[in-house]
Fold Transcriptional regulator, TetR family.
Amino acid sequence: MAAVPKTRERIIQASLELFNSQGERSVTTNHIAEFMGISPGNLYYHFRNKQAIIAELFIRYETDVDSFLRLPEGREPSLEDKNFYLESLLEAMWRYRFLHRDLEHLLDSDPLLAERYRLFSQRCLQGALAIYQGFCDAGILLMTAEQVEALTLNSWIILTSWVRFLCTLQGTSGDLSEEMLRRGIYQVMALEIGFIAPQVRAEVEALHQRYCVPLQAFV
């Protein structure tokens, strides 16, 4: 029989569910405790406030992204790796979508989180730069060093603002879908279209189509 998650873990998972569905600013510790059927005092025994819960969730998101945003060891990256990176990004964005939606507010509210996010952003940019350069070294992308740098920065801007863009477009902070995030991944891939090597163009374009959700599906 599977073990029942301990209260601390249940608080983390319940908070993530509520933050994602209702938006972090709409959820209080009392809401979380009520949702779980526990007393506020029980929640405060494990987390002193909502910021501490958010910090724990960010650590998990950070650890997740750090685990996959790196070059494969001992070889050049392949198209299979490209698919892995894309699916991993999509999964992380969807699982922790409240972080993307409410990022500016979260960082303004917690200087320690803001500093941690700054360092995380630097690592992500370095990792993405190395991966894009790896695809160039493998002959999948044909780009100069300056173009790789621009692609890295533009990709980061799209990925970190896509959820907020969707909320602005729809006038809501809650009704997102994984398909909407999938289109964000496609927007990043679209930046590469003019730099794909001829010998892999068919395979890369087929991969692109897996993420091309029509805009009219959610506009």
Summary: The mean pLDDT is 91. DSSP finds eleven helices and no strands in the chain.
